[in-house]
Amino acid sequence: MIKISNIKKSFNKSVVLKDISFHVTDGEVVAIIGPSGSGKSTLLRCINFLEKPDSGKIEIGDVTVDTTKTTKSEIQKLRMQTSMVFQHYNLFKNKTALENVTHSLRVTKKLNKKQADEIGRNLLDQVGLLSKADSYPISLSGGQQQRVGIARALAVGPNAILFDEPTSSLDPEWVGEVLRVISGIANKEKTMIIVTHEMKFAREVADKVIFMDDGLIVEQGTPEAVFDNPQNERTKKFLRNYQKHSSVEMDKENGKFALL
Amino acid sequence: MNFDFGYMIEIIPELIKYVPVTLYITIVSMLFAIIIGIFLALILVNRVPILLQLSKVYISFFRGTPPLVQLLIIYFGLPQLVPALNSITAATAAIIAFSLNVSAYLAEIFRAGLDSVDKGQAEAALTVGMTYPQALRGIILPQAARNAIPATGNTFLGLLKNSSLAFTIGVTELLAQGKLLATATLNFFEAYLAVALIYWGLTIIYSWLQTWYENHISKPYVRET
């Protein structure tokens, strides 16, 4: 269970998050959508303190943090509750695919090599990359790197996984395979928060959709409610724009995006 | 032409006996310089208040004054201020001076090396539960080191040659011995050329080692074919 209360965040003078509150129940998949610059990624990065919120409260599992007064150990505990998948993969370039998955287990959970490798191989198998276990990131395609990134995020057994635009920097040909892996995990009752521009994917995989604009949560609800029957004028405009831009693409890509 | 080739060859074994002294001063200074350099670079990258300003002054001073002057200050000047340093040997003074001098150069090289590792990898390490020191050790430093090796190698070669300055405060190393032989027999050209050839040989061997090492650690960054 994740409960975010009254999170605010400014960079210098520009206010990026204006009082954000929402909650995610265990096993729920939440998709955050909205225009660029609406604060989606910043919100996600506040949840694990990659950005320090100016104020507000974050509750994940049994860890509660008042963001105005935090200690290093509290931040560390909070970070242990989640893991993250990045837009640019951010794989450790000096480690093989397998080591990318196992390194945190060796360092933070002090597992021995054999135990860590077993977990690592299992996860690489889950994302379909067991054969690439000994390859370094430079030899992997974008889609493969992102799947290793997902395996790495799964390895630490987090309460929830945060996805920060996991397909935004992928070539179109790799988007499908990554989305398939993510929805495979979603089906296993894993709690996830996904910031995404893939509306079709959000609709299929999410239990709840949050639409953000200008640092605020404008609308939230089931995918059907938000996509088919949006209440707010800004949501309607955003979805209209999105459809205009992608209607041609979607027909062409239909086959590739067939997810499940 | 008055050049005694035979003499030059003859004294090379005599000079090589002093290579260990040169290498000792160079390598020990380099090790200390690397340790100090890493700390300085971490202060620069993380912009630690107060320490940042102190580091900048330190770096500016040791890069902005001649190594020979620094050596003289430490060997002759410091004991004047701190009498306990009176018993300092010339070799120790040389090692201190070269460590401080080279660390200032390495600090900037290491800073650039650390900056060359994209921030995302450090963030990723934090999100899977590592602390910043753990991320440094396992992820960032190994990559920063690789990027810093060519420039660090240049600095090392500079140090190897600058270690000859130690002879001015009475350390009998390679150049000092060469001077001794030169003045004893008045075969200046032969003696100093022999010294030069030995330095040259040392730098060539070092360059081989570095190339081998660079290839060795570059494996993760070369695409499989």
Features:
heterodimer; A: 260 residues; alpha/beta; Rossmann fold; 6-stranded mixed sheet; 4-stranded antiparallel sheet; 9 helices; disordered C terminus; B: 225 residues; mainly alpha; MetI-like fold; 0% strand; flat; transmembrane helix (chain B); MetI-like (chain B); transmembrane (chain B)
Q: How many independent structural domains of chain B?
A: 2
CA(first)-CA(last) distance of chain B: 58 Å
Mean pLDDT of chain A: 91
The CATH topology label of the domain at 2-81 and 158-257 in chain A is Rossmann fold
Name given to the CATH homologous superfamily of the domain at 2-81 and 158-257 in chain A = P-loop containing nucleotide triphosphate hydrolases
Strand arrangement across the biggest beta sheet of chain A: 6-7-8-3-9-10
Task: Please bin the fraction of helical residues of chain B.
Answer: over 70%
Strand content of chain A: 15-25%
Rg measurement of chain A, Å: 18 Å
What is the total tally of β strands of chain A? 10
Q: Which spans of chain B of ≥5 residues are poorly predicted at pLDDT below 50?
A: none
Greatest interface by residues involved: A-B, 32 and 24 residues
Mean pLDDT of chain B: 93
**CATH architectural label of the largest domain in chain B:** Orthogonal Bundle
Largest sheet of chain B: none
- Structural class of chain A comes to alpha/beta
Q: Kindly name the structural category of chain B.
A: mainly alpha
Q: What is the approximate shape of chain A? A: globular
- CATH C-level class of the domain at 2-81 and 158-257 in chain A is Alpha Beta
Care to give the gist of this entry?
The complex is a heterodimer of chains A (260) and B (225). Chain A has 260 residues and is α/β, with parallel strands linked by helices. Chain A has helices spanning 40-47, 72-80, 97-108, 113-126, 142-155, 172-186, 199-205, 223-228, 233-257, and strands at residues 2-11, 14-24, 29-33, 55-60, 63-66, 82-85, 160-164, 191-195, 208-213, 216-221.
